[in-house]
Structures are given as structure tokens and as C-alpha cells.
Amino acid sequence: MAQSPKLLVITDLDGTLLDHHNYSFQAAAPALERLESLGIPVILNTSKTAAELAPLRAQLNNHAPYVVENGAALFWPPDVDLHQAMDEHHSGAAPGYRMQAFGANRAQILSALAQIRRDTGLKLEGFADWDVPTLMDLTGLDGDSAAQALDRQFSEPLLWQGSNADLKTLRRAVEGYGLKLLMGGRFLHVVGHSDKGCCLAPLRQAYAHHWAMEGGELPKVIALGDGDNDVAMLELADLPVLVRSPVNPPPSLSDATRAVTQVTERCGPEGWNDTINLLLDQYRLP
């Protein structure tokens, strides 16, 4: 019988592994436990900050690499062998983790947005304008979680309330500064030219090296997401999974990707759990 392929699971959080309304992952616990027993890494790929991920990773007992702020930076754990060392450390990283940055830093983004405000007159209200209580009111987060969300290094989320015409104006303006817009589950994110797909190639290569895979073979990637900012990740995955959202329509995928994408029947972590178990069954994994 053919050997089962090496697998990586790369997943969005809000609305995907975490319930859209209460941020719980408990419905996905059975599949998470099964993945852990099989030694399959679960790599969190999120718009959240490194500070936000720290308590969640502890709750999940997750020691895999992780990706923050819509693909802007990938953090490598000390026990994953790399082709080349990432020597840069970062204040938000877990102890011993190394950072590989892909995107612009937040200071550059905020400077560009300040000039865009002056040039266009657009009302651009975002995380840099808010304190902890304001973000708590807008999101339902507790105080600690809101403070962690405000501790950003590579992106600026905006509360977008403008017209479609204004959105086009903003998009053109940020592109003029080498930046781009990504629509997340709750906010419009201004980021550099990075996305949630940037991490897939280095992750495949690092784990192929780490697992001593031969003949140029690479691990297969199962990617799960629910929003527009997940499209780049889904397009590059071997096994893309579109998780149904209780509030947002599904994002648009290319015809080729849509043809191989599994769409969950249930929303959020329930659908995540169902589809991971289905895929593991298809590979005849215990």
C-alpha cells in the first residue's frame, strides 16, 4: 500500500477554527487531537498579532510555526530545521522563535495613511485611533485581548464605512505607496505586499528538509479559510477548504481552485472539524 503523504494544516482563525461569535475552538477539538496524535502540524495563519496569538497558542498547546497579520511575518520554532537560519528575533515572538518578515512595517503603513487622509479627505478610522475600551466595544473582546490586538507591527485594520467609490479611491491611493487592502472578517486591513499565501513555499521547503523527504517531494498542504484575505492561501494549497461563514458570503476563487475546493456543510469550527476528519479518513489515517 502506498505510504500516506506528509501533511501540513494551515488555517485561518476567526470564523474558521474559531467561532465567529464566541471565538471558541472547542467544536474542532476532536480533529485537533487527531492531528496532534498523527504528528501533523497545525499552522495558524491569521490577521491577529503575535501578542494575540500567545494565549491562544497556549490554549491549543500549539508549538508549530505561526503566521501573523495577514501573512506579514512567519515565526519559526527552534525545533524545525531550516535551509538557512532566521537570525532576526522579535519582541512578540515566543521564546526561541525566529521571525521571517514578508511585509511592510506598521510605521510605514501609518505614515502612508496619514498622507492619504490629507490628500483624499477620506475618513480612515482604525486601530491606531482607538484605545482598549473602544476596541472592546467594537469587537466584544475582553480587555487583555483588545490590548493584544492593538499591539500591531505589520498592518493597520480600518473600520470601513465608506462607499464603493471611496473604497476604489482608497485602493488606488494605498497602491501608490506600495501597499494593498485585504478585507478580513470584521475590518479592512492595510498591509504591505504580503498575503497569507507567502508562507506556503517556505513552510513546504522547511518541513521537507525537517522530515528528510527525498526526491524533491514536498508535504501536501491542507488550507482552511473563510474570507477574502484567505484566498491567496487557498489558491496555493494542495487541498483547499472553504469554511462556511454564518455572516459573510464565500470569497471568489479561481476556476481551477474552486474545482478542487471542499466546502464545509457546517460553519466555523464545526465545519473545520468535519472536513479535517473527512480528509484524514480519505488518506486512511488513524
Please give the structural blueprint.
Blueprint: E1 7-11, H1 29-38, E2 42-45, H2 50-60, E3 66-68, E4 73-76, E5 98-101, H3 106-120, H4 132-139, H5 143-150, E6 155-158, H6 164-176, E7 180-183, E8 188-191, H7 200-210, E9 220-225, H8 231-236, E10 239-244, H9 255-260, E11 262-267, H10 268-282
Helix pairs in contact: 1-10, 3-6, 4-5
Report on the structure:
The protein has 286 residues and is an alpha/beta fold. The protein folds into 2 domains: 7-102 and 196-282, Rossmann fold (3-Layer(aba) Sandwich), CATH 3.40.50; 106-191, Threonyl-tRNA Synthetase, Chain A, domain 2, CATH 3.30.980.20. The chain contains 10 helices and 11 strands. It has helices at 29-38, 50-60, 106-120, 132-139, 143-150, 164-176, 200-210, 231-236, 255-260, 268-282, and strands spanning 7-11, 42-45, 66-68, 73-76, 98-101, 155-158, 180-183, 188-191, 220-225, 239-244, 262-267. The strands form 2 sheets. The chain has an 8-stranded mixed beta sheet. A 3-stranded antiparallel beta sheet has the order 6-8-7. β1 (7-11), α1 (29-38) and β2 (42-45) form a beta-alpha-beta unit. α1 runs parallel beside α10 (268-282), α3 (106-120) packs across α6 (164-176) and α4 packs across α5. The longest helix has 15 residues, at 106-120. The radius of gyration is 19 Å and the shape is globular. Mean pLDDT is 92; it is low at 85-89.
Give a summary of the structure in a few sentences.
With 286 residues, the chain is α/β, with parallel strands linked by helices. The chain is built from ten helices and eleven strands.
